[in-house]
């Protein structure tokens, strides 16, 4: 890819709808909407607004990044479906990135083990642990679903200093194992997504960058399916 790679990032895996554009000089623009979860109604107008005010035409976008979860089922589906439609219409590579990786990314220059923790509802969290590295946070456990007690047990088993980030950590902050540091970042960032997707594009890491191959990371069945099974 050339030096003029512009990446569009689509972030809808949690309560926030976020879109960002990144180019040679970093992030060009960001739109984030946190009020009311109306992902389907908000996403496309947010993309249009961002492109208009950054003066970046859709034809100038060279790659698209999308948060594939884990997270809110409906939000993930809206973001991934929109990203796939745009990627196929514009014949662009589509890079899917895990929401927990995005949470860990801003803490990559620290010294403590990073825990990305997303509220999974129903008394559970999605979480993964990472080792900080200047080249990017390196995942040391696979994303999983569990109770906050399961999370605490995994942290205690490592016997290392841990910093936690994400709305799941904030929701259960009073139940976290003593000594876990909490960072003021609740949701994955569209800016981080744009930067990571652009880096992978420039590095040629596009083995799974076709729209057909990008799939949501659910980690558990959708709530509707769970409710039907229970009935």
Characterization of the model:
It is a single chain. With 231 residues, the chain is an alpha/beta fold. The protein has 2 domains: 7-99 and 188-230, 2-Layer Sandwich (Nucleotidyltransferase, domain 5), CATH 3.30.420; 100-182, Nucleotidyltransferase, domain 5. Helices cover 33% and strands 25% of the residues. It is built from 7 helices and 11 strands. The chain has helices at residues 39-54, 73-90, 99-104, 148-158, 167-171, 190-202, 223-230; strands spanning 7-11, 17-23, 26-33, 63-67, 94-97, 113-121, 124-131, 138-139, 144-146, 162-165, 181-182. The strands form 2 sheets. Strands 6, 7, 8, 9, 10 and 11 form a 6-stranded mixed beta sheet that branches. A 5-stranded mixed beta sheet has the order 3-2-1-4-5, with helices on both faces. β2 (17-23) and β3 form a beta hairpin. The longest helix has 18 residues, at 73-90. The protein starts with 6 loop residues before the first strand and ends with a helix. Mean pLDDT is 90; it is low at 226-231.
Throw out a few tags for this protein.
5-stranded mixed β-sheet, Nucleotidyltransferase, domain 5, alpha/beta, 6-stranded mixed β-sheet, about 25% strand, 2 domains, single chain, about 230 residues, 7 helices, disordered C terminus
